[in-house]
């Protein structure tokens, strides 16, 4: 019997009717190429509005990582002009889901998006406000208000970024970037904690929280300090020696067009599978322990080696969704359901409220 659950929503939940592919994005300040942002400048020549604005820039299970900010060509004019030290309210898309909360950071870059220093954090319970009683996609908080640091440098070409590691569902990294102008800064540089990058190719994977909202916190408390300025950025030591920081240029190609979200294939040892959350089978007593990176729950076998097109949906769907089909699962890619992928020997696809995963009986 086939489950119609997806990794982001329960298809039959009235709360999310008509919103099956929603994740999250900011609408103010307007992020690059947003079709739903507020006070958006014109999209640069040769570019187009981003219909994927709510989607993550990276997914461990789907095996892709797009450039930081997704687009590297800025707006010709700022989408917002702020004064250092003022209070700002960051607004989020009302058509969004919370993925049970997670860790959010708000950061600034002065070098075109190569390095980001954090100016505000909402850790553990971003979008949900407090620890939820169970898995949820309900959004309790859709805006955050905070004061900009007074020592932000003035610049007409600063980048404001929101980033998020979701608590439940596929292991993803979300990021929107808005081109902003900063006026009235009292300093030529700003020193803050380096933005954490996780669930991104070449960076640590933060597993599903599974009710433990301290999950991944060591990456945030251990992130090093970084100094950003219009003249360049430098990094310094921190209590964790920079573990989980590392927001210098990631390995993804920095093109202005997003990377293709094709059906996953075995490309690297870490991102060799799109299998949703399949754990490693428990080892026999005395066996060597798995490496730390196995906490992501990625399977060791690539889905392409175990796919079957003999069953499963073949109709249209909303890109990014996943569903159980028998013991395996399918991924919606560009509006079409993939063949059925196996969860691996002994594992089967299971559905819970809000996402699917591959697990052992």
Q: Could you walk me through the main structural features you see in this protein, from its secondary elements to its overall organization?
A:
The chain starts with about 25 loop residues before the first strand and ends with a strand. The chain has one helix at about 215-220; strands at about 25-30, 60, 65, 80-85, 85-90, 100-110, 115-120, 145, 155-165, 170-185, 190-195, 225-230, 235, 320-325, 330-335, 335, 350, 355-360. Strands 2, 3, 4, 6, 7, 9 and 10 form a seven-stranded mixed beta sheet that branches. It has a three-stranded antiparallel beta sheet with strand order 1-5-8, with no helix packed on it. Strands 11-12-13 form a three-stranded antiparallel beta sheet, with no helix packed on it. By secondary structure, the protein is mostly beta strands. The chain is built from one helix and 18 strands. About 0% of the residues lie in helices and about 25% in strands. Strand 9 (about 155-165) and strand 10 form a beta hairpin. The radius of gyration is 20 Å and the shape is globular. The longest helix is centred in the middle third of the chain and has 5 residues, at about 215-220.
